[in-house]
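<tokenise_the_fold>
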Amino acid sequence: MLSLASGFTTYYGMSHFITPWIALIITVAIQSIIVICSLEIAGIHWKANRLRYFSIMTSLIIALAASISFSYFKFYEISEQETIHINRFKQVRMQIDNYLDSIAQIKAKILGEQRKKLEKLSEEVSLAYFGTHPQIPAEYRNQVGEGPFWKHFNQRYQREKARFDQLEQEFSQLDQNVKTLQTNLYQLDKDPASVEQTYQSVVSELQNVQIKFNQLASGIIDKLPEAPMLMPYAQFIQDVTPSFSMWQGFSLFAFVCAAMVDFFTVLLSYRLEFTAPGPLTEHEEELVFECLRQFTEFRINGNDELEMVIEKTELERARRYSDWSRMFAVGFLLSRGFLRKIDERTVEFAPNLYPMIAERMGDKLQAIKTQSMAKSTSTENS
């Protein structure tokens, strides 16, 4: 089941880069290699055949690397989908906010310059009223009142004031459009049911703000700010598509999830093969114990396990001793996981074999002790 789950995620990621049916075949091969190599490693000892052991390890590592790499895309999509949507929303909001900030600064600059110009004209009107304006000829200086010079400067002031009031009113209407745009932008991520309608409203209001601002500022400033090009709605709601760019924004959580599935696949396969599939029957235990007793060369090896030589001794070869029964026991225990092969002539005990031998030895010792006591009792009676 773990292999099937890993195979699904591997196939999902791989199918976005190559033809699906080829991806399926490769996925089956990858998962087969992972399971088979895990079983093989549990059943061999690296000292027995180092070349075979390292070739199996290399195959397993390559298969795991391929499986984890392509599974990563699926877990990345699951774990980062919400984050990517939030980032898209932030991108749209940032683009609009930056544009609104720029037009707000230009608006403040325009109104500030127009206000200074109006204040200067108001000051000129006051000077003309008191006859102290520099442009008034000397013979008409210091004549207080609403004379022709005052009327001239007052007309200029009234025209500029009317223009300024009109500009303020138009900017006030622009502020209403900006407020509507910001409201729609705020509602964009609040109601999932109306996202499409709200997004289209945001795009429409942004265009209205751009058109109105350009109309107001085109005759006043030379360089107008560029409005942002918002992504299409289809791209805004698009699901995550596996691509190599996912490795740039590396997600440790997605990588750990992808690796965890394959790790447990290897671990379970290894343990199932490494551990005996089930206990031996009493008859099998007796057979194994008697056959193992026929071996004579035992020692403790570097793994701190009891090791025995399974080849015939020179004396047994000379006597043409038939070791078929005990070799059968060795093969039987190797296949059941109670023995581990070290090389061609030696095997070692697996941890689960010691309790069985200890129990049998205890039974034998108890039987010998009982016989000894019975014999001594019979001797005393006689």
